[in-house]
Amino acid sequence: MSDFDIVVRGGTLFDGESPEPRQADVAIRDDRIAAVGDLRDAHAGRVIDASNRRVAPGFIDIHTHSDISALFHPPMESMLSQGVTTQVVGNCSLSLGLATSDDVFAFEKRWLGVHGVKITWDTFEGHLRRVEETGIGTNYAMLAGQGTLRKRVIGLDSRPPTPEELEAMKALLHDCFEQGAWGLSSGLEYTPSGYADVEELAELCRVVAGHGGFYASHLRNEGDHLIEAVNEALEVGERAGVPVQLSHHKAEGRRNWGKVRETLALVEDARARGLDVQLDQYPYTAFQTAMSVQFLPAWANAGDNDAVLARLTDPDQRRAVLEDIRCNHADWDDLGPDSLWHQVEIGACRSQRELQGRTIGEIARERGQNPIEVVLDIIVQERNFVSAINFAISEEDIATVMRHPLTMVGSDAVGTAPRGRLAEDRVHPRSYGTFPRVLGRYVRELGVLKEGEAIRKMTSMPADRMGLHDRGRLAPGMMADLVVYDPRTIADTATFAQPHSLSRGVEVVILNGRVAWEHGAVTGVLAGRVLRRPVA
What is the pTM of this model? Predict the structure, then answer.
């Protein structure tokens, strides 16, 4: 008879908490860690040799969008390949758990429909059950999306809620927490999330606080008005008495580089006043989101997709859009050597795949057009389903934010795979490389972080933010989520030119006591679980 199901033997262990490693074996029985220490004499059904390797808790990705892909790519291959065992989904106000089959969710249905998935649920719990029935390759913890919540109650109207509508949103949010939500996310650069003011957000966050959750905010602005946007998020947190998570923290645009030193000071001041505020970050110098969000004025994105496209095809309205852009961004007409447009690449562009990876500057010169006109044309041609990759983040800022003790790692990615239809979209390389990139580039090569601190930012720190008391650490009684990796070789291989490339160095991933990744591939075991926050 075996003492244990699995023993991971001979590795150098980072337990997720201590900055220093130690030599120790880890024994697993069923889905939990049964023992940690010198287990050379223990018997097990399987022994994994971790000699010259690191053993760490499974990485917890505090910020993903894999609710988009969970139902058409359950294995979550790109996530497992980088050591992620738990994903927090429903970020940036966009939560499929709150979507329904109603017409107002046409955009969400379009994401899923191309892969043959339909929205068949009408409750948060209904979505979670659907994921459980399908199976999932990583643990799956969902936030309620404030923008999706607003759509359900108010639709796409740009106005404050009536008292009755506000109460309806609060009641629906309460139901989400009763059904397992871990927090509330906002995406204030997006429609309709950005229609909410501080008072509306604070009212919703009082519900969150009452359930012991947290508020994760994609700020209203991450560039010219970054300081004001951080202050807004802190004000919401202080009004509501709710913990605040500043999502994918950065300063966009060269003229804003260095502002993160000011925002980190604001965070520290808020902490000194008693507010629980933390940050997350991905380690890349480019961001990727919808082209319309990046380049259209906010008013031009109002309403549904047809309304946006109507503004860009009606001559008078299009002229007004162009005038607004030029008034606020005089330099955007420029195609000189320092032009922004040489730093903006087309991302996912499904009806014109030949444009993916090309810069707006290249396309504008080729077409003999003004670059702003090119942007508007592509949005229209793609029916507003096109993203752009913008190289607008400073390496120095990345290191500054990464070093801060309140920053954890979050990919802002969607789980995907390097083959078939999934490989056709030009995704951000963070989908494949975030966690290995931190350990390879920023720990081993650049020394921005020490290895133990990096592991803490990937494990116990997000676990504590979530209130996941049985994950994020290697200790007896904890859930058996483990990563075995080679510290000499771990690295990201995905690039912006070739984003669908698996990282190297992650050798074994154990999830809820079962081997989910080994020999450079998923094992076929969907070992993930839907994690519901206990009802407060």
Answer: 0.97
